[in-house]
Amino acid sequence: MLRIGVDVGGTNTDGVLIDVARIDAPARRVLAHHKAATTPDVSTGIQTAIRNVLTQAAVSPSHVASVSIGTTAFINAVLEADARRLASVAVIRICGPYTKQCPPFIDFPNRLRALTEGHVAYVDGGFEIDGREILPLNEQQIVHECALIKAKGLANVVLSAVFSPLDSDGKHEAAAKAVVERELGPTVNVVCSRDVGQVGLLERENASILNASILAFAQRTIRGFQRATRALALACPLYLTQNDGTLTTAAAAARLPIRTFASGPTNSMRGAAFLAGLDDRQPHPHPHPRPRNDDADAHAGQPERRPIIVVDVGGTTTDVGVLLPSGFPRQAASFIEVGGVRTNFAMADVQSIGLGGGSVVRPACAGAEGSGSSASPRVAVTVGPESVGHNLARDAQVFGGAVLTATDLVVAGGRAELGERTRVAGVPRGVVEGGMQTIKKLLEGIIDKMKTSPEDITVLLVGGGSIIAPDQLAGVKEIVRPPFFSVANAVGAAMAKVAGEVDTIEILAGRDLHTVVEAIKFQALRKAVAAGADPATTKIVEIVHLPVQYVTNEATRIMVKAAGDLAPEAVASLGNAPVSVRDDDEELDEGEKAIVNETDGTFDETSPGSELDIEAYKPAILPDRRWKLSELDLEWVAEGCGVLGTGGGGSPYPPFLMARQALRDGKDIYVVDPDDVPEDDVFIRCSFMGSPSVSIERIQGGDEIPSAARALLKYLGIADFTGAISEEIGGGNGIEPMIVAAHMGKAVLDCDLMGRAYPNVRTSLPGAFEVPGGLWPCAISDGVGNTLVLPSARDPKAVEHILRAVTTEMGSCSGVSMAPLKRGTCTRYGVPHTVSQAWRIGRAIALARKRNDLKGVPRAILELQNGACLFVGKIVDVQREVRKGFTWGEVTIVPLLEEEEEDGRTDAGASPTLPVKPDDRLVIPFQNENLYAYIESAADGEKKVHVSVPDLITVLDSQNGAALGTPDYRYGLRVTVIALAGHPSWTTTPEGLRCGGPGAFGLDEVPFTPIGAYKAPRSVVKEYADA
Fold it and tell me: Which has the minimum average pLDDT: 78-82, 173-177, 180-184, 714-718?
């Protein structure tokens, strides 16, 4: 069976012809390959590449079984915000009363939003995490919205239901799709979000919107692909490659083009492994698919397969990815930005650096370009990120140009024969050696970041610029340079597999995990075979099960993937069905771009801080001493809440979006200084309880906390209140009072009741000191009519258990309002001016970024609060497990070697204060939040604790200065660990230490020694009131 693979890149279109029946031959039976220029209409370049491989191999088109194409055309339309290729989209969100504080398009860049936002609607429906309906689907509401969509002339509709990935019976999105198609006719394109992304409503919906927006363009493009193959008398099926390295039919790609967005890097990885003979080609031992524990029997007697890193060096950049033992690439993090939009569709985890064959080389010292004497010492040399790119043959010195490039270095060093070596004979040896050392360091750095363990790993080196790579790299046990490396992308397209995937959440209470997983594996196998996989080669390639945090019903997310080779009978039966397009769609050249009105303010892409001089920025303090927050203020507060969250508290990003939306909707957020508020003024307390897995899907509707607060106020007989205060300033709960206050027309008190984040609701200062009303009475609500007031409780633990049980019944997410407190109580048993402190921390990080001084971030934060920069290093191990609804684990960090430093030195602002040896390790155990940190000596294994709760331990990403949550910890991240002094109410009192110290977490053996004296935060209102 002969297959053709084509990869359409920005510069070249590569084609290969492979004899699949003879892949065990030395050259893996690559019969022919050709590199053609990518043409403006794309199709012409494809035709040229295919025609040439057929001619080279003297093969008749009738002998070709399939053509597989990988293309970046669709993602480029989004990245360029190309108005010729993007259409307006109507979004019908099936959510009942939830999610409205976070509307569709909320985080789209302005230009892209202006091009794609056509209509937004909310209708009844959606599901809870346990599969119960929030509300039944309301057909009449959908019919009403269809009339509005029709009047606007929109032809692309997205249906996005809460927890739709759990709706295997099609009760909501599929049923709504039938209604929309009935009302709007056959020309409408309807995209169901469950077909596009995974759990995470906003990100799945965003991906669906992008998919719907490019549908017409995708249909035109794929029709052009089909025309190109027909013009060459190819009657075989046409496939497109997907982001995960699998195939989809042309018709399916025309419905879900977003699944092909990032197929290029994946094709490169799988093609490299295939060419090197490292792919998994073992046959499945069973003639028919059936549930299996794993694929171990398929590899009986063979050595254990290990991950492989693929390094693809081009002319300007180097892309690095990880190929897992399954033969598929490691997937990127939960959220991926495409064109500035957060999405969660599957995409390979690929990191890029500005290094390629055309990278410009610059010696760091003058006079280094003089004599070519062999005695010339090695000099410091920069390589990239600037590159001559596709002008290498014109600008590089070996080709007669004037620019010294990375290619010139390898030719001058005698490592490659290219151009005329005599033209680079005068390049000093010191420059050549220094430049090659820089290249080596850059490659070692990016490879190390992609590794998941410290063991040496195999690297596959591909790409036209791979000649610049050295033969040995630290951390790499073997470098493999496969044949046909320059067309690895096209080979990967030709040899892509067919997959079936199931991603669901199951309630395991009273059920056996093994039995549940076996049933899901069977579903995945059946889906793969139904998609065209050969049953003889189809097997389970991935199983992941993740317990959901903060729930009591053992909810677990289970992801299973099966894959197999394309079945010959599937090829024969699929044919080459034409892709339908609208009558008014015309062909567009890839080179044509729309001209938009650059003076239209709706296309203003400036972020809140980019149009301001943040060095001179002053917050707005009104004459009555209220601080009126701007979007920039919110951004800084959210950043600071992340730092004060000590790894927990939930992500501040979704609440930040909701608060920002409130400002854009014309509402105001005011913060008041406690010293300006009468002592008897009442403030309601705001927080959310539940699982992050629920809050990212069943996004708050806005009435959860207000409903709880109103019920509690009524029970207590309190008629009115002044404002809101947060239970914890750390993480997302630090922003919640701002959302509540904006919608209720109240103020936010510059104070909170923890000064940080803690995993338990009872761990607040009013609870620690047993203040009357500190923990009860309290109220809890789901915002849809279910509200419970808890008048009293046996003890603080009972409050925790009762509220968590009720939260589970409410769908594992609820708004909580503890007993309101007077201002005087808030300041006596709280931490004043923590909103100001969060703002100042966020501002300090923003200023460091603006000044390109990321190593100065720890110093800037420590100027605001006493503490220490404990450690600078990289994560080498992360252990996690979910117990009793909490994530327990530990992260291990080792010091950076001198050569691993970005510029070869350690800035004073990031210098760790702990005396450590090169082989010592810092270990941080956590229970949602970081609990304590100790140094483990490499010499004798001694463990010395240096900081613990209630002081704050925060892990910063050294690359951008942002705080990392414990779910974000992963191998290879460069991090800086800081410790900040906790409030004296926690650190110097028996009550505070008993409630929030090590003993509260069962760590009686861990000592507490304050990291420093607490520095009271400065009030923003007081500083800027008279400015």
Answer: 78-82
**Which tens digits make up the pLDDT trace of 166-206?**
887 889 999 999 999 999 999 999 999 998 888 889 999 99
Q: Answer whether 535's CB lies under 8 Å from 287's CB.
A: yes
Structure tokens at 35: 């590199």
**Dist CA 163 CA 129 (whole Å):** 7
Q: How many Cα atoms sit within 13 Å of 66 on the Cβ side?
A: 30
**DSSP states along 488-514:** HHHHHHHT-BEEEEEEEEEE-TTS-HH
Cβ neighbour number for residue 171 with a 10 Å cutoff = 16
| Reported confidence tier of residue 377, pLDDT bands at 50, 70, 90 | low
CA dihedral 795, 801, 802, 806 (to 10 degrees): 160
Per-residue pLDDT at 512: 86
Helices (H) and strands (E) in the chain, counts: 28, 41
Q: Is 221 left (phi over 0), alpha (psi -120 to 50) or beta?
A: alpha
Question: For 855, which DSSP code?
Answer: G
Do the Cβ atoms of 124 and 141 come closer than 8 Å? yes
Q: How confident is the model at residue 605, as a pLDDT?
A: 45
- CA atoms lying within 13 Å on the CB side of residue 2: 20
Beta bridge partners of 403: 396
Q: Tell me the two tokens of residue 750.
A: 């510059």
Q: Please say whether the dihedral angle defined by the alpha carbons of residues 746, 751, 752 and 757, taken in this order, is positive or negative.
A: positive
Q: Radius of gyration (Cα) for the chain, nearest Å?
A: 30
Beta-carbon contacts of residue 56 (< 8 Å; ≥ 6 apart): 17, 31, 32, 33, 34
When mean pLDDT is compared across 379-393, 457-471, 656-670, 1012-1026, the lowest value belongs to: 379-393
- Measured CA to CA in angstroms, residue 500 lies from 331, 413, 531, 565 at distances of 16, 49, 7, 12
Beta strands in 481-619 (DSSP E): 498-507, 539-547, 555-564
Dihedral over alpha carbons 203, 207, 213, 215 (to 10 degrees): -160
Between CA 803 and CA 818 the distance in angstroms is 11
Pair 96, 125: CB distance under 8 Å: yes
Q: Residue for token digits 């991926």?
A: 336
DSSP three-state, residue 757: coil
For residue 584, the SS3 value is: coil
Tens digits of per-residue pLDDT, 724-779?
Answer: 999 999 999 999 999 999 999 999 999 999 999 999 889 999 999 999 999 999 99
In whole angstroms, give the CA distance from residue 221 to residue 766. Answer: 63
Q: 598 Cβ partners below 8 Å, 6+ apart?
A: none
Cβ atoms of 826 and 725 closer than 8 Å: yes
- Stretch among 63-67, 585-589, 629-633, 848-852 having the lowest mean pLDDT: 585-589
> pTM above 0.70?
yes
Q: Which residue is it, tokens 């009591």?
A: 552
